[in-house]
Amino acid sequence: MSVPAHLDWLVDTGERLKSADGIEIEVWELKYGDDAARLSAWAKHFREHYCDDDMLEKLVAGTGKTNAEYLLNDKFPDEKNAPGPSIRSGDFAEILVADYVEYKLGYWSPRQLRYDLKWNRNESTKGCDVLGFQFIHDGGVDPNDELFVFESKAAMSGSKPINRLQDAVADSGKDMLREATTLNALKQRFYERGEDAAALKVQRFQNMPDRPFKRISGAAAVLSSSLYDGGVISQTTTVGHFNAANLKLIVIRGETLMELVNALYARAANEA
Fold first, then answer.
1. Is 0.90 topped by the overall pTM?
2. Burial of 140: CB neighbours in 10 Å, binned 0-12, 13-18, 19+
3. What does 173-203 look like in DSSP terms, one character per residue?
4. What is the mean pLDDT of residues 211-224?
5. Residue 184, phi then psi, degrees to nearest 5
6. Sheet with 214-224, edge to edge strand ranges
7. Helices marked H in 8-77 — which ranges?
8. Which helix (H) or strand (E) holds 29?
9. What does DSSP assign to residue 257?
10. 29, 71, 116, 82: which is closest to 264 by C-alpha?
């Protein structure tokens, strides 16, 4: 598995907080730099969640638009007009958490199919935010196989710290209701694309009573550093969560993240 170079910028600080009910909270930091080659590769990786480059050529044909104009006006959330900026930050957070799940934790985390068929670019996609699948045996079924369902929340603008981790925990508590429809949608998309093997990997997790597996839940907050306050985050409680015994909590902080998000969208468009 080739790890995207920008994942070197996502580092575990070693800092650990405790929630109000004693659950460990990992603190990570996105220490991005001014590396043009790495930023360009990241932008391509990011762009292809919305539209792979082969499909982009077909979709732009006949519109009279450049690739950049099409992406900025028809695919990507709007930079300035609400609710575009919040959708941008939310999508960025989801994709970053999916990268964490796949490349830091070692799960299979298919996610491109979540963004490429948005009917409204300025709406978030319905269903569970991030899915991760882990198999004990390649091609087999084992009760220790894992389904990891992660919810993410972002805060990249504002003037005071906010506990978006609590919001992520609250949304994670709804995932039991969304899990079946999310798996079904993902499986269907794979079949529509002719990716039958991938569809069957998703199918493995659609009937827990007959094919037992481990269900892991996750909640993540992606915050600009100016909005991060460990004391506020530590007020998070997981009481009442249906899967509290198997709930992973993380915070990812980084400097001026909204500036990074807008720069990444611009680079993704302009370099297409």
1. yes
2. exposed
3. TTHHHHHHHHHHHHHHHHHHTT-HHHHHHHH
4. 98
5. -65, -45
6. 10-18, 24-30, 247-254, 214-224, 146-155, 130-134
7. 36-50, 53-60, 67-70
8. strand 24-30
9. H
10. 71
Q: For position 30, what pLDDT does the model report?
A: 98
- The reported pLDDT for the residue numbered 1 is 65
Each residue of 26-83: pLDDT tens digit?
Answer: 999 999 999 999 999 999 999 999 999 999 999 999 999 999 999 999 999 999 999 9
Which token pair is 166? 């609590």
83 prior amide bond cis, ω within 30: yes
Helix/strand/coil for 86? helix
Contacts (Cβ under 8 Å, ≥6 apart) of 125: 114, 115, 118
Of 253, 250, 133, which is closest to residue 201 (Cα–Cα)? 133
Report which residue type is found at 242. Answer: F
Across-strand partners of 81? none
Q: How far is CA 124 from CA 76, 83, 119, 216, 246, in A?
A: 11, 10, 10, 23, 26
